[in-house]
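Example record for the data management plan.
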Amino acid sequence: MRTEIRQVEEQPRKGGLRTMPFIIVNESFEMIATYGLQTNMLIYLMIFYNMSAATATTILGLWAALSNGMAIVGAIVADSYCGRFRAVAFGSISTLIGMIVLWLTTMIPELTSLSCSHFQHVCNGTTPIQLAVLFSSFGFMSIGAGFVRPCSIIFGADQLEDKKNPKNQRRIASYFNWYYVSTGISTMLAVTVIIYIQDRYGWQIGFGIPIVLMFLSVLMFQLGSPLYIKVKAKETENLIIGLFQAAVAAFRKRNNTRLPLTGCDEYYRWPLESDVLTPSMDFRWLNRACMIEDPERDLNADGSASNPWNLCSVERVESLKALIRILPMWSTGFMMSVDMGVFSFSILQTKTMDRHIFPHFEIPAASFTMFLLIALTIWIIFYDRILVPLLSKYTGRSRGLSPVTRMRIGLVVSCMSMALSAITERIRRQKAIEEGHEDDPNALVNMSAMWFVPQYALLGIAEAAHTVGQIEFFYSLLPKSMSSFASAMHTVGSAISSLIGSILVSSVDWLSSTRGQTSWFSNNINKGHLDYHFWVLASMSFLNLFHFLVVCRFYKTGNDEINRSPHVADDRECDYRLLHES
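Corresponding structural encoding:
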């Protein structure tokens, strides 16, 4: 995520494929442990902390936002200061500490409030100390996830870096494939096996097993330490700070009319760039950031900028422009992640329904997320192995559907998923009332939970189509120095979406419970109106689709393909470009 001079300790017999088991096992166990805890957390908070469904969902949304936001912090700290090995080691230990603290809440009764049935009029509230312990466990796990996830995959690639090997790129590509396969399998195990253990054997064992897995994760990573290639990062300027510097420099020179917006011969370039870039005409007011006013004042003896907050290179200014170009399209993805967060409530729905697939086997309510993962995987395989070859054969497009088309498909399908969720919940609630369960939220409704599978499947397809398309779209617009921003922008977007989702739930809960009315998110979902909330999300998703179509009008398409190998900043090679600001 930044331009840096990296020094690799040149020691014989380090790195290579033999380090992969340590790195992949570390990340796999971390994901199984973390997702195994998060998926069922709504039920845990409602039972042992007497939280309402709305409050628990809001807290979990803020937790997700913090974890995603910390990923950016972890990446910057690892690149600029401590290196990726120390970042992964620190993050793994932090996650383990958070899990131990959370497990202690199941072992020490004083750390949780007494359970409260829906027949009680007054329930014991949680104390500040109990909440402090709970939130500290969330904080440790968020810090751990923020340092492990953005650094672990790149740390593995460092072990395979061998420019002398002609097959090195194929080996690294194979590593990425197996890495993502391992994370997919880990997530599936988390939402099935770990959730089943929690439902069947209780919270103490259900939270204890992830601790064992996380301890093995830390141990495996440390055992491989003597074999690792450890890339050291110097404390040099990172890309994010450089972008801020470019914006500040342009703002400082905003009133300097002596600097022309075009046709200037004194552009600052540092370090010496392979291709002499000329500032583009988009967002011309930013060009002042790279214009030299006074060489004696602005430049050091070696030609570098004396004050980077007053003078930036042409490349840095063009990087900032590239980031600004993708912001409109980036904003269209927020609603997708907000829709993904709706399935916290689906756990409450499926708990009241028949979840048997065999006479003596019942799917845990929180494990229905696996249908989303299955649909996501099937769509990716179908698209890559069947649809792309067909489109390539009949249309001549080697990469199949364009990124914008795939994003459009994802947004349309997400609208369908939310509408179907509203319809299904209305049917479930009506059946519960007809069967006399209006005052008993724990009563089983004579309705199969398999009715919820289509909405999970649709959202899985929407996520696969939109997310992959959006990241590929970003990659087509960003220069090579910012290629890692493609996935980083998605991470930041997920954090913002989680925050939006939490604010939305809190607002709807407050508005729907005014004047003594029953909240839509009542703990008794038979009295609440989750279907109304789903219709709100469906309407917002439709408005977001309209917003997406409007944003698309500000981009013009060129070749509809992304097939160049070097990722450069030359605007002529970008497939999608923001139209001229005039």
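Summary line stored alongside the record: Strands lie at 6-8, 231-233, 356-358, 361-362, 555-557, 576-578.
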